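fold description:
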Amino acid sequence: MAQDPTETVEWCAETAQIGYRDALATMMERNRAIAEGDAREKIWLLEHPPVYTAGTSADGAELLDPRFEVVEAGRGGRYTYHGPGQRVGYIMLDLKERGRDVRCFVHSVEGWVIATLADIGVESWRSEGRIGIWTRDIDGREAKIGAIGVRVRRWVTMHGFSVNLAPDLSHFTGIVPCGIEEFGVTSLQRLGIDLAPQAFDEALRNRFGDFLDALEGKACALP
């Protein structure tokens, strides 16, 4: 019998909030350990206290109201908000063993989130030219429900995605999220879905095998 893919990678789902700087330091150390063969790959699901993070392409003009701490994240992308009610997934996988294709990795992460949201009743999609995961908001307009931002160091991935379950959406107004001004931000709660973090984590885990299949080249886009 084939091994369950969720058993080959360590899963850690936090119930308490983890400070962003602490999480970043932990992720950097795990990246090193995986690259040197001293630790297993890991999926880390958590929530942060309110924080704005700056990617490598962040433009200071897009930091509109820095009411929370601003941290240089080291990932790709621009400014992002993290806070309570948002589930963050940090992905620490060894691409030396999984295709060495960063573009396919990002595409597969997007597909994993999209498939998971579909399983809980939310249609979402990629939008060409706009980073992130998009859906139809209650006003009929497109709005972002998930963010993607990654870094690859020594062929081991870091950072990952965030999905808005029930955050305070007003906190996003302190930045131009991911540099996109003309579209808003939404959440599962705003769309009428109340989902506990643990239920979302389980939905992600149920789709993890599909994600690995996509990443390893069996299908670089998930259904």
Residues 102-119 form the longest helix (18 residues). The helical segments are 5-8, 20-35, 102-119, 197-206, 208-215.
